[in-house]
Amino acid sequence: MINYRKILELYFDNVSQRTISSSIGHSRNTVSEVIRRARSRGVQSLSDTMTNAWLEALLFPEKQAVEKGYYPVDWEKVHKELQKKNVTLTLLHHEYAAEAREGGKIPYAYRTFTEKYGNYAKKYKTTMPIHRKPGEILEVDWAGSTLQLTDRSTGEAIPVYLFIATLPYSQFSYVEAFLDMKSANWLIAHIHALDYFGGVPETIVPDNLKTGVTKPLRGDPVLNEAYRELADYYRTIIVPSRVRKPKDKASVEGTVGYISRQIIAPLRNYQCFHIEDLNERIFDKLEEINSADFQKRPGSRKKVFEEEEKSYLQPLPQTRYKLTEWKTAKVQLNYHIQVERMYYSVPYEYVREYVDIRLTTDLIEFYFKDVRIASHKRLSGEIGQYSTNSDHMPDHHRLYLDHNPENNRQWAESIGPHMDKFVSYILDMNTEKKALNILSTLRNLATKHSNRELASATQTLLEISQHPTVSVLKGILDRHKKRMQKQSSNQLHSNDRTDDYGFVRGAQYFGRDK
């Protein structure tokens, strides 16, 4: 008989396979196969219970079947097949028996087949029990099965999706139905669940669904911005489960199946027309589930939650979280962004850039690289409305926007009463468009002169003309400017005249006075 235990003891002591073969007296192939199978079965150390017979049953289960004349079973394959959806031991035994008879072998009976698989799973596929702390984790997910509403007008069946949240310590659960699984309902479901529990756990464990996780990276998944914001508000942490790792949230996975049997199945034929009506029925069933006594331990989910777990939850904020939604959009050439067929302005420097949009019920905010660049009150009512902040405009756009009769009158008043009278005359004697063109010329002219010069020139204009124009005003200003320049020049020449000529030789020096 092969001494499996001795081979593995020497191997775990780092003895080479060649030396083990020489000392035990078994071939190197035998030693190598024993070690290979021990590795594949996850045997890393030996305990007192691991006798030679135990190790033989573990490493070479087919030997026992062959010795007794039965067709051997690949239990590893059976275990993997059972992980697939809708695969049962009955189906696998049927396939195994058919394969055995085709080869002229004797198959195990179904009872023996299940017993041997149970021993295999118990010995080699055990899972470590994880003892959760009260208030530590909340596991959340959408149920795979659905209920339905009936459209009152068409009779069409409308699918309804169930959100499930479970506290693993007490198994206390919350269930609510929604018409879709979009981000808004995902967040609303969390808010309602936390209100139902009356507190906040340290960690929330969702699946890697798109409504919660933007990028399900292996090491550090990127959360949806609205989901991350909700977690920050409630001072909890979101830790998504690993992709295709249902054991990361085993409690809610188990609850999904239990809920399917206790809620979805009884209500599968219930006809209702409103989601509120269906949720009332679901809440009644949920109360029965949470209040029902455990079968294998005293108490119920609700009793364990209220007596042992609720006090460990963090308190809820004083006000309920205001639901937000995040989107991304490109700034148009008119420095506006279209959101739900309404238009909001951002600074013109961000034209053609992609910005993040944060929407609440009454406010909309725009972020560029995590910096807020604009905010507006959210528009409602007729579509196509614009919300424009003049500070977001380029200078020439802002000047055009400000060029209106009211602003021109205010400017004229700041110059003086004569300019105010002149501007009023222009507006009264012309159509608005023509008047604004004339005033545009006047404003450009005003940039070259001081307010005092403009006030004096306008007074002169109104005194000499019954039909004043900008061109006449320009002539007055030009003549005034020339007059001022001439006076300045004359003043300069008068200051240059003097009788002190310095060291200049006179006529006497050259003898002309003789």
Automatic annotation (TrEMBL):
Protein origin, superkingdom: Bacteria
One term of GO molecular function: nucleic acid binding
Residue intervals of the Integrase catalytic domain: 130-310
Pfam annotation, one family: Mu-transpos_C_2
GO biological process, one term: DNA integration
InterPro entries: Integrase_cat-core, IstA-like_C, RNaseH-like_sf, RNaseH_sf
Coiled coil: none
The family this protein is said to belong to: Belongs to the transposase IS21/IS408/IS1162 family.
Cited PANTHER family: TRANSPOSASE RV3428C-RELATED
Name of this protein: Transposase
